[in-house]
Amino acid sequence: xxxxxxxxxxxxxxxxxxxxxxxxxxxxxxxxxxxxxxxxxxxxxxxxxxxxxxxxxxxxxxxxxxxxxxxxxxxxxxxxxxxxxxxxxxxxxxxxxxxxxxxxxxxxxxxxxxxxxxxxxxxxxxxxxxxxxxxxxxxxxxxxxxxxxxxxxxxxxxxxxxxxxxxxxxxxxxxxxxxxxxxxxxxxxxxxxxxxxxxxxxxxxxxxxxxxxxxxxxxxxxxxxxxxxxxxxxxxxxxxxxxxxxxxxxxxxxxxx
Length: 257
Known about the structure:
With 257 residues, this protein is an alpha+beta fold.
């Protein structure tokens, strides 16, 4: 008697630093739009709708630079808004820097599947306010661990933060790590992360920053060797100062969300 073949599940993953819904098209926009990091703007709502349309075709989306509901976002939790607008049944946010009514700097996770648990971790660093959100999908040994993070600008802090995350994911057979790492592909801290965690970079270097003239790869989706990459691309969308990074993967048989 032959067992029926188990079809491998494909997943579409997206990592996106959305710059709290601010569209940037040149370096001078950092000055021209600086007030939008503090105050609400009419353009933000329309831009969020465009971001929602972009993420709607994906299964699991990791977001960085999300506002969880303050004056500048018109007290809208942007992760919740994007999930609702994109038709994603699951969403979660993690606020890492809470300035009350002024700003709530957060990570976001949107998914078409419901994880059985989501962990929230603060990342080490001299200046607090960085974190990693870790969600587990599936069950038992066949689970998929998905981590979303946004790392520090300073290399010394990034070394500590990557070592912390590598320890979290070291024993996971099927893991995804996505986010804004604020470093280049051949940086020593990223090599250290790969060595300690066993996670792999995409084969091609995908430039994501700045969005209007991308010449640097600082956004990543790292994967366990068990997760086969079918397609990886940076999407040419000017809804932020970063381009979204998209990867389509095939899960091994037995791993089903």
